[in-house]
Specification:
Elements (H helix, E strand, L loop, with lengths): L1 H22 L12 H9 L2 E6 L19 H6 L2 E9 L18 H7 L10 H17 L4 E3 L3 H12 L5 E8 L9 H8 L2 E5 L22 H13 L2 E3 L5 H10 L5 E5 L13 H9 L3 E4 L3 H4 L4 H15 L4 E3 L17 H9 L4 H19 L10
Parallel strand pairs: 1-2, 2-4, 3-4, 4-5, 5-6, 7-8, 8-9
Helix pairs in contact: 2-13, 12-13
Length: 385
């Protein structure tokens, strides 16, 4: 019995910690110390990160952690005004960038090991609803974290920060609409739970669309066309990250509002299939949208702030500084060189890459805020969980 108890302790308490330490690594490097002027510039900016996967892991976002990349104290240290938090609900075994089937799910073991509610063990929908409940519970127990669901919430957040409060906003997103489980009505359930952005696919094809990393890599399905219309009617931001090229084309033909790529890179500097070519960048910009540049090697072929700034500069030079922003993919099973408390290094890298101060301020968050204001619902009641 003692042996069984020891195994249970290892599985349910040590395994989640060990897994996150293995997958969400930081490999620090020595960077030039930002000047006092750069630090002031960063402190004055409204910083927005379009993609973090923290809700997937078994730890409180409110407490400083010795693992991972995002928590509330580090968001405050990094002067992040708004963090978009994605709900990751399924990951194929043998995950790769080239070809994945949706027939397996490595997150079942993680859900069980983290003692998540049993209904989340085999249901992507229930996992997302649980992530929403986790974030709502964190907001209820903290006066420094605020969920953003409407334009009015965004206004209150920014006013509070202007008044000197250390308030951080959090907005829910979805990484792959396989969590609809084939039912369009579930989009309303997710909206009511607080989700305001959604990527249509993750690493595999689903009933909505083809993934860049899937088997068929097709376009929008008939069901997907209906879902895109529903999202635009509700005021949910469409995220093109992970979509196949055909599906990206299909969405852009239907887009009536700005679209985003929440986390990724550019093929001109990092020839990885998930990154955007120049034509796609131009078409996303034409919607008024933004491209969030990630911090891991698959996005920018390196992990230094200079790699991030180089990709952002390519977007700026191609379509204008108003169409690029931050999309870290922190806590997304990625290896990075800094965490969210150290974002001033990105600001310094943008300065060294030739961005003007207004361009830096826009790229750090002003561009993302513009898209949120153009898309989020306003003056409508929403329910939370």
């Amino acid at each position: 019995m003692v042996g069984i108890g020891a195994l249970a302790i290892t599985f349910f308490y040590l395994a989640p910690d060990m897994l996150e330490r293995r997958f969400n690594r930081i490999t620090p490097a020595d960077y030039p110390a930002p000047s006092a002027h750069v630090r002031q510039l960063h402190a004055a900016a409204t910083v927005v990160d379009l993609h973090g996967d923290t809700l997937m892991w078994q730890r409180s976002i409110l407490r400083a952690a010795k693992r991972g990349h995002i928590d509330l104290p580090r968001l405050q240290q990094g002067n992040v005004a708004l963090q978009v938090l994605s709900s990751v609900t399924k990951s194929p075994k043998g995950l790769n960038y080239t070809r994945n089937s949706g027939d397996s799910d490595s997150l079942v073991g993680l859900a069980i090991a983290q003692l998540q509610p049993p209904q989340t063990w085999f249901s992507p929908l229930q996992r997302s609803l649980w992530h929403a409940r986790k974030l709502a519970a964190a907001q209820r127990t903290s006066d420094q974290l605020m969920m953003v669901r409407r334009v009015e919430d965004l206004d209150r957040l920014l006013q509070a920060r202007a008044d000197g409060e250390s308030l951080v906003g959090a907005m829910l997103s979805i990484e792959g609409l396989h969590n609809l489980e084939g039912d369009r009505d579930n989009l309303q359930r997710l909206f009511d739970a607080g989700f305001r952005m959604a990527g249509l696919t993750h690493f595999f094809d689903n009933r909505v669309a083809g993934s860049m990393h899937g088997v068929d890599k097709g376009g929008l399905t008939e069901f997907g066309v209906q879902v895109v219309a529903d999202m635009q009617q509700l005021g949910m931001i469409i995220d093109l990250a992970h979509l196949s090229p055909t599906a990206i084309d299909d969405v852009l033909e239907l887009a009536t509002q700005p679209v985003v790529v929440s986390h990724g890179g550019v093929q001109a500097l990092c020839d990885v299939n998930r990154n955007l070519n120049d034509d796609q960048i131009r078409r996303i910009a034409a919607t008024g949208g933004v491209i969030g540049i990630g911090y891991w090697s698959g996005a920018v072929c390196g992990t230094s702030p200079d790699h991030v700034a180089a990709a952002m500069k390519h977007v700026r030079d191609l379509v204008g500084a108003q169409h690029v922003t931050l999309g870290s993919d922190f806590d997304g099973a990625v290896q990075v060189a800094f965490d969210t408390s150290q974002l001033v290094f990105v600001t310094d890298a943008l300065r060294r890459a030739g961005f003007s101060e207004p361009e830096i301020t826009a790229a750090l968050g002003g561009n993302a805020l513009r898209v949120l204001r153009a898309t989020l619902p306003s003056g409508t009641a929403t329910t939370g969980q």
